[in-house]
Protein 1
Amino acid sequence: MRHANTLEFAPETTPTVSERVIHTIADRDGISPLDISPPLFDAVDPDALDRLCGDGDVTVAFEFAGYRVTVRDGSRVELAPLDAAGD
């Protein structure tokens, strides 16, 4: 069975999509955003992610920090553990 975690943020809470990804993973793992390893830029270009998702009508998926990360509509970040992503 696949387990996914989804958090939604108001635009004024966390201004960029890349920050939303970091904060969602940190919240899920119960750690500080500064403690996430490897850095996001090892998986995806944060500036390109922010630009691509900026208009809110795009879905982007990539693997990062043990999760399949899916960004929908520029404000919704979904996480699925990689070990369960193929189930």
Protein 2
Amino acid sequence: MARLILIICAIGLVWLLLRRALPRREADDRPGKREQYTPTVRCHICGAYLDRRLARRDQTGYCCQSHDDHA
């Protein structure tokens, strides 16, 4: 039983040392990550979230194209 605990501790120690030794890859370094993100806004009439480029801005905030004539 003591050997099993010793083996598990040795494997854990090797794993921790390898995690520290290997360089970490930053999440923002992935190619194309920034291009995939598009900011969203909430329609003040129905509450739906939509791409900011598709939303219409009025006096009270953003709204959907379908609500644009109602606002």
Protein 3
Amino acid sequence: MNLEKLNRIIILGLSSLAVLYIFAVQLNSLNPFVASWDQVDFTLAMDRYDLRAMQPHFPGYPYFILGGMLLKFFVDYPNQALVLFNVLVYASSILPVYFLASKILSRTNAFLIAAAIYTASYPLIIVNQPMSEGAALAAFWWFFWSIAATESRPAGKWMLLPLILFSVLLGIRLSYIPMGIGLIYLLYRKWKKRELALGGVIKYVVLAGLFQLIWVAGLIVSEGGLSNFLELAFGFTGGHFQEWGGTSASNELSFWARLKAFLFTNILWWGIFSRTTVLMVLYIVIGIVIFLPASKRKVLKENSVYLGVLLLLAYAVWALFAQNIDKPRHILPLALLLVFLGLIVFFKKRAEMYASPLVVAVIIAQAIISSGYIQKQAVNEPAVYQLADYLEEQQEDFVLYTWEETRVLQYLEMSYPHKRIYTYRNFLHDQGLYKGKTVYLTNSVVDGFRSQGFDPDGKLEKVESFASGKIFDPVYHKIILYKWTP
């Protein structure tokens, strides 16, 4: 056996073990907690699907909920059924990533890229939560592959595959709608190569709409008609972009501050480096090597690379302006696309012996870090759970005012009174109704009052603080409980 073949066996063996190890850890450590407003929405939908009751919130994510329902017989809790669906579907994404990379690189290097994408630590944390991001990432990779596969084949039945998968993708998570530019790209390419006439293009546009109508029509029926559905749609959209969505329209950050947080904090530090120095160093080394002069520069001419860049740019604009900058999970497809495209360039420019071992080092590091995160996430109580338990033990009569935490407290069926408060003026009026009772507030409420121009300092007494992993919940990882002492 020559040295090159032995090296390939070792590389493939180590990366395969890392993939199998992560999959086993995920199955053995299904997250049992429901720790945020969105997670409660999805979990409650498993018992009663009702958009008006935000079970889940609009647009309903029907394919994701359906997947959870199919698996709820195999686990103890409905939220874990959603997590299990994420885990299984996300594992399948190794295949389309491998197929995409193998069109450009050797099979060994293609598998290394698929393993690097699958073992990425922050995406795996989100996969292990009862939200639709994990399944949506998997559906995206299949959609991406379907476009590349269809482009290389004559127009015909294959054209239906990306149309169907785009419907599945949006039925899992509507925020991936910018990825529809991939369909525009495909139809344009087919038209330019004269495989489709204008009539054929129009036909497939209509078919794409009909496939989307499958899940949209189901939601319309479930809401009792088109007018009710549109009322919900406009109400949700208005709130997302103007009140609570954290978009550029509702967030007070300047454009440059938002761009800095978007690129360096969300995409790099969270999405790719997973808040770890080890991965930051490894990926920076790969980045440096990519930009070093090559003895024989290889120009990328593959259409799938151009398609990947197009998808990345389209979603980047959407994520920057229309998604919540405080929630790094919204940039996951961008982070993974950057890794995918970056590693393709890396292997194309650096085919020497050290290229593969460096990527294997990333895979092993990610596997170790990811397994630790997944196991910790499954056993460490979120801060909001700690708050709930602490207040449950209090003997005096009290009322708790929260921002979004009350949604989780409702799910946990806490017996004490708790309510979400929106404005300082309403709070001053409402707390007067509880004379003789202790009035508690969380730090999120206090921060909200300050953002409205009211400073409650001097009227608060810090009682207790609760903390959990910031990477699991960037918004409510630390909760401070205050007593109102006017």
Protein 4
Amino acid sequence: MENLTQAFEQAQQDVKTLTSRPSNDDLLSLYALFKQATAGNAPAKGPSPFNFSAFAKHQAWSQLADSEADNCMQQYIDKVAQLLGR
């Protein structure tokens, strides 16, 4: 578990070194995986659909409901590695 946590923390630093902006889908995926791994399930009541960005983030996060934190950490690590071309 400790190695996974360390790799997750490293991926959080590595993502800041990307030389090009990821697609919106990749950004939503990273956001949702991070939130599920660190905060658990999204709140049942989300933001207004008229707040497009916040609504999209909440929707992406909600799709990961009941996913295990360790699984989300690993997916986040893998996604960052993919974006870095590793």
